[in-house]
Amino acid sequence: MAHPFSELTAELDDIAQQGLYRSRRIIESPQGINLEIDGRNVVNFCSNDYLGLANHPDVVNAFKAGADQYGVGSGSAHLICGHSAAHHALEEELAAFTGRDRALLFSTGYMANIGVISALLGRGDAVFEDRLNHASLLDGGLLSGARFKRYAHADAADLSANLEKAAGNKLIVTDGVFSMDGDFAPLNELAVAAKKQGAWLMVDDAHGLGVIGEYGGGIVEHYGLGQDDVPVLMGTLGKGFGTFGAFVAGSEVLIETLIQKARTYVYTTALPAAVAEATRASLKIVISESWRRDKLKKLSERFRLGAEQLGLQVMASSSAIQPILIGDSQRAVNISNALLDAGFLVSAIRPPTVPQGSARLRVTFSALHEEQHVDRLLDALAKIIAGCK
Ligand SMILES: *Cc1c(COP(=O)(O)O)cnc(C)c1O
């Protein structure tokens, strides 16, 4: 008799054959630019903790004080008895920070995206998604039951052609800064197309909030777009903010609709109040320490210029995400492993996270890196990529 799951074993073998097998590395140190892995120190170039706040003493202390004040567990969902004064204060501060009427916390970004899209759309409606959108946005669109249409990456003309044909409520959904490419959505054009066709525009700015714009307001600050232009703004707290969770910001009607109808809001436990307290501390730093954004920009530009000079295939990114295109998945993994041996943690991103044949090294920077880290990484890349099959 066959073992249970014998079909799955064959599938796992197949995944490995294609160079697509994924495994975890065990980190023994706090998050930061230096990580301890298997007793070895490596320089970290793959975190989304862009501003270096995940282990900032103010954030850690606020978390501890929050646990002292509220305990660890939040006890229930927000609508039962889990919505603490800490959550409420953070929502008000996030609304002010984003220049929106209100903000609503979700326990993760994945859940926020699924909840929002399913709350706003149903059968008879239509959702329009950039081809390179994050998995959670695509899943949210599919789950909503609305007609699901992908448009060519960052192509407002392709979007407009599709919009004209649609009936029902129409929602355009895009990453702000694309997570695996680092480029910006053409938000000004998308906002014009949305208004012209009476569609709603939703932006997931997981990689832009706190990081992009003089004040850290993200992609909407970069383009100067308000709540009328981008009525649904989603952000995550586990990246630039260095903590955990997510939020959606927008009008009173939007937020009240989500409280009534977003199933991933209603039917899940609120994130710990201490996490909200930690995030309030990190938001203060995001607002007041613009040097972190300036430094990040300098480091990213230094890397990009250096990589170009080495003849590496950089991508059209002006953010802290600077991928090097490799193509073949196994080769990307081999290079990533060789970099680790040389003391640099850089992740190989492969399909289905990115399109077939576009495996890449996703290099990310932190405000805590120094120029010498960038230069050392460039030296290692030059040697390793040339010698790696
Ligand atoms: C990370 C990410 C998410 C998911 O957020 P989590 O809080 O990690 O669940 C959603 N959208 C984008 C674009 C992301 O990069």
Automatic annotation (TrEMBL):
| Signal sequence residues | none
Top-level enzyme category: transferase
Please name one Pfam family that this protein belongs to.
Aminotran_1_2
Q: Which InterPro entries did the record assign?
A: Aminotrans_II_pyridoxalP_BS (IPR001917), Aminotransferase_I/II_large (IPR004839), AON_synthase_class-II (IPR050087), AONS_Archaea/Proteobacteria (IPR004723), AONS_Proteobacteria (IPR022834), PyrdxlP-dep_Trfase (IPR015424), PyrdxlP-dep_Trfase_major (IPR015421), PyrdxlP-dep_Trfase_small (IPR015422)
Listed binding positions for pyridoxal 5'-phosphate are: G109, Y110, S179, H207, T236
Keywords, A to Z, come to: Acyltransferase, Biotin biosynthesis, Pyridoxal phosphate, Transferase
Q: What does this protein do?
A: Catalyzes the decarboxylative condensation of pimeloyl-[acyl-carrier protein] and L-alanine to produce 8-amino-7-oxononanoate (AON), [acyl-carrier protein], and carbon dioxide.
Database matches in PANTHER family? 8-AMINO-7-OXONONANOATE SYNTHASE (PTHR13693:SF100), CLASS II AMINOTRANSFERASE/8-AMINO-7-OXONONANOATE SYNTHASE (PTHR13693)
- Member of which family? Belongs to the class-II pyridoxal-phosphate-dependent aminotransferase family. BioF subfamily.
Know the name of this protein? Answer: 8-amino-7-oxononanoate synthase
What is the organism field in this record? Methylobacter tundripaludum (strain ATCC BAA-1195 / DSM 17260 / SV96)
